[in-house]
Amino acid sequence: xxxxxxxxxxxxxxxxxxxxxxxxxxxxxxxxxxxxxxxxxxxxxxxxxxxxxxxxxxxxxxxxxxxxxxxxxxxxxxxxxxxxxxxxxxxxxxxxxxxxxxxx
Amino acid sequence: xxxxxxxxxxxxxxxxxxxxxxxxxxxxxxxxxxxxxxxxxxxxxxxxxxxxxxxxxxxxxxxxxxxxxxxxxxxxxxxxxxxxxxxxxxxxxxxxxxxxxxxxxxxxxxxxxxxxxxxxxxxxxxxxxxxxxxxxxxxxxxxxxxxxxxxxxxxxxxxxxxxxxxxxxxxxxxxxxxxxxxxxxxxxxxxxxxxxxxxxxxxxxxxxxxxxxxxxxxxxxxxxxxxxxxxxxxxxxxxxxxxxxxxxxxxxxxxxxxxxxxxxxxxxxxxxxxxxxxxxxxxxxxxxxxxxxxxxxxxxxxxxxxxxxxxxxxxxxxxxxxxxxxxxxxxxxxxxxxxxxxxxxxxxxxxxxxxxxxxxxxxxxxxxxxxxxxxxxxxxxxxxxxxxxxxxxxxxxxxxxxxxxxxxxxxxxxxxxxxxxxxxxxxxxxxxxxxxxxxxxxxxxxxxxxxxxxxxxxxxxxxxxxxxxxxxxxxxxxxxxxxxxxxxxxxxxxxxxxxxxxxxxxxxxxxxxxxxxxxxxxxxxxxxxxxxxxxxxxxxxxxxxxxxxxxxxxxxxxxxxxxxxxxxxxxxxxxxxxxxxxxxxxxxxxxxxxxxxxxxxxxxxxxxxxxxxxxxxxxxxxxxxxxxxxxxxxxxxxxxxxxxxxxxxxxxxxxxxxxxxxxxxxxxxxxxxxxxxxxxxxxxxxx
Lengths: 104, 687
Prior knowledge:
heterodimer; A: mainly alpha; disordered C terminus; B: Acetoacetate decarboxylase-like; 3 domains; 8-stranded mixed beta sheet; 26 strands; ADC_dom_sf (chain B); Acetoacetate decarboxylase (chain B)
C-alpha cells in the first residue's frame, strides 16, 4: 500500500493551480480573440470589396471563441475546486469537503 | 488610363488609389485573423496539456467527484461543437477554421487589384478548395496542401507565399517533400549567346541585365570588378524564382530567412550561395556588393543580416529590386541597402507584407543612414509582368531614372572593368530535381533569336485536351504542304484532324497556352494503310504516323520562336485563356475568335498520348518527338463544342472552317488535367 506524504502532495497542487491560472488567462485571450474577429467583421462591413460571406463567418467564429472562453472559465473553476479538494483531508466517504469559491 | 497605369478618378488625396486601400484593408484583416488563429492554436495546445496532466489523472483517482468534473469541463472546452480541438471527434479545430477564413480574405485581397490571378492554376485550385464554408473547406484545403501533384501549382502563388506556410502549420498539412535540403554549388560556363549580354564594365543596369540572363537554370553569378581606385571587389548577382519555370534541382527556398549564424541551419539556398563564394576564392575581408531580384534580393538581404558572413566579408552594398524589406537589420551598420519596387508588384516581403505596404510613392531616400528605398507607381500593373526584371530595367531607364543614377553613384567603387565572371549552378542535393525521373534528361543548348533554349523542352506541369474530328481527306490533303509524301492517314475514308489545347503552367521556356491544329499523316517514305492502328502498339520513337501541325497559336514570344525555329511549325502569337483542369473545359482566344467549351462526359483511361509532330523548315520536314507522362482519359466528344466568332479566313479560323470543325462535334476528346512532357529538338528529315 502506498501512502502520500503531505509534503509530496503540495507540489501537484501547485502545478494544478498553475494550470488553473493558465486556463483563466486563456479564457481572457479567447475573449480577446473573439473581439478581434468582431472588429475585423465590422471593419470589413464597410468595405465594398469585402467578400459577402466574411461578416457572417467571422461573427460565427467570434461566437465560437466566446463559447470557448466560457468553457475554459468553467474548466478553470472545476479544476480549482478539484485542486482545493485535493489539498484537504479526505472525508470517510472518500469525498472532499466543500470548497469555498475562489477569491475574486 | 494614365501613362502610369492608374485609372483617373480613383486616387485618394494621398496618392494611393481606392483599390489599393481596399486591398490593404483586406490584407490587414487577413493578417489579423491568422494571428488570431495562431493564438487559438496555442490556447488549444495548453488546454490539452492540462487535460492530460498526470497530476490531474492521479488526483481524479483520489477525488473522483471533483477530478472527473474538472476533466469533463476540460474535455468540453476542447471537443464541444466548434471546440478548440474539434478534430478529436471528427470535427475541425477552431484554429483551422479561422485559418481558412484568413486565407480566403487574403485571396480576396490579391484578386481586388490582380483579377488576372484568378486564372492562375494554383489560385484556382486554392480558391476551389476554400470555396465552401467550415469543415468542408478545411478538409479540402488540407488535402490540397498535402497533395504532391498540387505542389507545383501552389509554388507559383507568389503573392501568398508568406501566408501558406502558417496556414499549412495551422492545418497540420505538411508538404509532401518537406525533408531537409542540402545545398551545393558548381561552377558552370555561360552559353556563348548569354556571354554577349554580360557587361564588361560594372554598372547597376549592367548587373541587372546579367541577372536577367541568369534567370533560367538556378544560377548565380560572381564578378570581380576593378574599381576606380584599382582595388578588386566582388559583385554577387542573384535572380529570383522565374514564375512558370521548373526549378529542376535548384534549392526552392530562396526567400527563406537565414539562421542566426552560419553554423546554424541555413536554408539550402543560402548554403549554396556560401559554397559558391568559397569556390570563387573571395579572400576574407574583401568588399562585396550583393545584388538580387525578387526572392534573390531577399536572400541577399538575409545574407547581409548574418553576422558571421559579415565578419568574413565586408558587405558594402545590397541592392534588391522587386523585393521589399523595410525591417532589414544589416549585421554591419555601414552596409548601404537599397530596395526598389514597383507598387503594383505583389511579391511578398519578408514579414508577409506586400511590396505595396512599403513607403509612399516616390519616396527615394530615407531618414535612416545607409538606407535607400524607392517604391514607385510603375506603368505595369499585371502580375507577373510587373515583377519581371525586364520591366524593372525598363522602368529604371524611363520611369525612375533618378533611382538608377543614385544607385550607380552609390556603387561607384564597383564601376570599373570586370576582370572575371563566373556563374555557379546552385543545387539542392536533398531533393530530387523537379519531374524526376521523367524530366531528368541530358539537354543541349540551341541558339534562337530569343536567346539560347535548352532542348528537349521540358513541361513540368501541363493540362491538355485534344479534340479529334473526322474530316474530309481531300480537304485535309489540300491544307498540307504541296509535297507528294505528306498524305493524311485515313480512318475508313476520312482523315483525322486534331485541335490540341494546352495549358502549360510550368515549362523550361516559361508558361504559355497553346492552340494547335494538326492532321494525322502517314509515314513519309513507306506509308502503310494500317499504320494508324499499328502505331497504337508501337513505341513512340518507332511510330510511323505523326501529326502535321497546320497552325499553332501560342501566348508567349519565346514559345512562338521555339516552335518556329526549332520545331519548324508555323506559329503565331495570340492571347488565350485556358482552363483544362476540371470536367468543364474552356479555352477562349479573343484574338483568334475561337472558343472551345463544354463538359467532358464519362471517360476511360488510355495509354500515354505520346506523339510525333511534323513541321516544315525550308525544303525539309522537321520531326519532333513528344513524350508525355500523365493519366490521359478518352471521353466522347458530344459535350464539347468549338465556336468561331470571327469572319477572318486565316490562319487558324479558315482552316477550321474548311475542315468543317466549327460545325461538327469532335468524335472524341483525349484529356489530361495534369501531366509532364518533353519535346525533343526537331530532327530535320531529307524530304
